[in-house]
Write a structure and sequence with these properties.
With 308 residues, this protein is an alpha/beta fold. The protein has three domains: 2-68, Winged helix-like DNA-binding domain superfamily/Winged helix DNA-binding domain (Arc Repressor Mutant, subunit A); 90-163 and 268-303, Periplasmic binding protein-like II (D-Maltodextrin-Binding Protein, domain 2, 3-Layer(aba) Sandwich); 166-265, D-Maltodextrin-Binding Protein, domain 2, CATH 3.40.190.290. It has helices at 2-16, 19-26, 30-44, 60-86, 106-117, 130-138, 184-187, 200-212, 225-233, 281-303, and strands at 49-51, 56-58, 92-98, 121-127, 144-147, 156-164, 166-171, 182-183, 192-195, 218-222, 239-242, 254-260, 267-274.
Length: 308
């Protein structure tokens, strides 16, 4: 336990960038915190911090040490969860990074379903792009990431996957609601509200437009799903989304239509963890639940295809 306390003290200094600020947050004196750091450095055989204009920062040895701390602390949390599981208690925190489309419907449903069975487990969810998710997993800041882009296979493991089609989204009074399916040519006759091209869906649409020799000139372009959907609801604009980001009967009045593409492409929603990392019991159980949900959603998507 003594090592764990020192680890957490050092991590607080890293977060604060200052021994004094870290000591305030830890409710101890700066001199006491300094002694703990110096004692650890003596054991390690050298300093782990260097001074800068703002306070202190990790040196190269410190970076290595902190990565080891985070790994050790994550393993301790797994051990504690396993011991509580033996006693019939399910507690803990599941930390997730994810892309925006999962926030309105899929992820809240899955978390609520899980917490009905295990009310002692809480969740921490952060919106992140693939690069940010990669960093969070490597630094043990997240247990799981849900992305639309694969991460390097040598460091990460995809534990569940769901293929998703692209849908056009329009308001309930839009002229295109008379069609059961839409193509890109029909959509570009109206103002477009598009995702930023950094999103996978934007890259697919750009590729399709080039194949069809169409111009995708957006009236609005954004990385905010809330902004795009509200703009579409209050205009004759057309937007695009994958199924997991939509409600079958949207309470706000958004209507979805399958988008016919010249070269059909699907997006892959991937549940990813750090390769070789032992997840806590709580996180492992959530992986099982999400994998099961992906399988059910895949079956539902097939059953809802036009003509089925």
């Amino acid at each position: 336990m003594r090592n764990i306390i020192i680890y957490r003290c050092i991590l607080e200094v890293v977060r604060a960038g200052s021994v004094r600020k870290a000591a305030e947050r830890l409710a101890i004196t700066p001199s006491s915190l300094n002694r703990r750091i110096q004692s650890f450095e003596q054991e390690m055989g050298g300093p782990i911090f260097e001074k800068n204009a703002q306070g202190v920062r990790l040196n190269a040895a410190g970076e290595l040490a902190v990565h080891a701390f985070k790994k050790h602390l994550a393993e301790i949390e797994v051990l504690k969860a396993q011991i509580e599981d033996l006693r019939g208690i399910r507690r803990g925190t599941v930390s997730i990074t994810c892309s925006q489309p999962l926030l309105p419907h899929f992820l809240p449903r899955q978390i609520l379903k899980y917490q009905k069975q295990f009310p002692g487990v809480d969740f921490s969810v952060s919106v992140a792009d693939p690069e940010e998710s990669e960093v969070a997993l490597l630094n043990y800041e997240a247990d799981l990431a849900i992305t639309f882009s694969p991460l390097p296979t040598e460091s990460f493991e995809t534990v569940a996957r769901l293929e998703q089609s692209i849908f056009a989204i329009i308001s309930s009074v839009h002229p295109l609601t008379q069609h059961e399916r839409l193509n890109l040519t029909q959509c570009v006759e109206f103002p477009l509200a598009l995702h930023d091209s950094s999103f996978s869906i934007g890259k697919i649409l750009d590729s399709q437009a080039q194949l069809s020799r169409l111009s995708l000139r957006p009236y609005l372009k954004s990385n905010s799903f809330i902004l795009l959907q509200n703009y579409i609801l209050n205009s004759d604009a057309v937007g695009f989304e994958i199924e997991i980001g939509l409600s079958e009967n949207d309470p706000h009045g958004l209507v979805r239509r399958p988008l016919i593409l010249n070269a059909p492409r699907k997006m892959s929603v991937q549940l990813i963890k750090l390769r070789g990392r032992n997840l806590s019991v709580a996180a492992a159980k959530f992986v099982e639940q999400v994998a099961s949900a992906f399988n059910l959603d895949a079956c539902d998507s097939i059953n809802h295809l036009p003509g089925k």
